[in-house]
Amino acid sequence: MTRKKKEEALGKSSPIYRNIFENIGAAILIIEQDATISLVNSEFEKLIGFSREEVEGNRSWVEFLAQDEYERTKADFSFTSVSSQNVPISRETRFVDRQRNVRDIHLTITKIPGTQRMVASLFDITERKRAEDTIKEMAYRDPLTGLPNRMLFNDRLSLALARAHRNRAKLAVMLLDLDRFKDINDTLGHTAGDQLLHKVGDRLASLVRKSDTVARMGGDEFILLLSEIARIQDASKIAEKILHAFDDPFSVTDREIHVTPSIGIAIYPANGEDADSLMRNADIAMYRAKELGRNNYQCYAPAMNQIRLPFMYMTKPNR
User: Per-residue pLDDT for 167 more than 90?
Assistant: First the structure.
């Protein structure tokens, strides 16, 4: 059937119809009951990169779905599913264009009354989705180091705790503070201090597994999540690895800067069964490490509460 006859079969071959079909501002498809494409407009050609001649009567519309969307979208938008609803069905999905670029699409399909066909409209929302992803990334990342921030760390800790509870596993929270970082800022300036923090973040991230998290909490404070560790000693080994890694200087503004960390460790479930308890106890252990001369790590013990609590929240020592 020629294109003109297809339009006539739909009863919409008038100039008004053709004008709407071509200039509606969205990619439009007329789809047969077997999912074959009958008609496309010029917006579809622009969006997907295939000409009318290549697709009309020759291609199924589901062939353009991204692989990970294929089964779900095909089932949700089958002729039977759409016609049984008697209302348009919409969802975000992904299409693949001629250059194999994946495009985010807002797809709406509805049955054409009195026919065995459907009409589909495709709006390209790729740029909008990218902007949303960028905003989301900014909300969950520390702008200085690119590491997860406190918000993202809290989310990951909550998920890790739920998983550890199900699997009866252990995990560790490690709070790390740079010793006397204020002196570096005061003598070399904040630009050097910021560069140092960035390099510290990179070095810490290189020392843990991909399944672990290194986050910057703010200032010169970093926090690590070691998920599903086998033994309590595994956290101590990572702390020793970090201390050893800090033996090497950091190159900042053409200088070599030596800096040391103080580390506090809290283990789930022995030192707390929720995020707040673990982070609080890691903080207590970290300040105990400061008291013991800095450049060391301490594992939380209940006795530390009696030693530190009256003091730590009022007159914290010079870090």
Answer: yes
Angle at 118 between CA 115 and CA 119, to 5 degrees: 125
Cβ–Cβ under 8 Å, residues 228 and 163: yes
Q: Are strands 37-40 and 27-32 parallel, antiparallel or unpaired?
A: antiparallel
Q: What is the pTM of this model?
A: 0.65
pLDDT at 175: 97
Identify the DSSP state of 219: T
Q: Comparing C-alpha atoms, which of 206, 212, 218, 221 is closest to residue 157?
A: 212
Query: What residues contact residue 75 under an 8 Å CB cut-off, 6+ apart?
Result: 81
The catalytic residue among 133, 220, 234, 248 is 220
How open is the CA angle 200-201-205, to the nearest 5 degrees? 115
Question: What CA–CA distance (Å, rounded) separates 28 from 30?
Answer: 7
Tokens of 41: 């407009």
Whether 220 is a known active-site residue: answer: yes
Instruction: Go through the domains of the chain in sequence order and give each one's CATH number.
Output: 3-129 (3.30.450.20), 141-312 (3.30.70.270)
pLDDT digits 0-9 by tens, 241-299 = 999 999 999 999 889 999 999 999 999 999 999 999 999 999 999 999 999 999 999 99
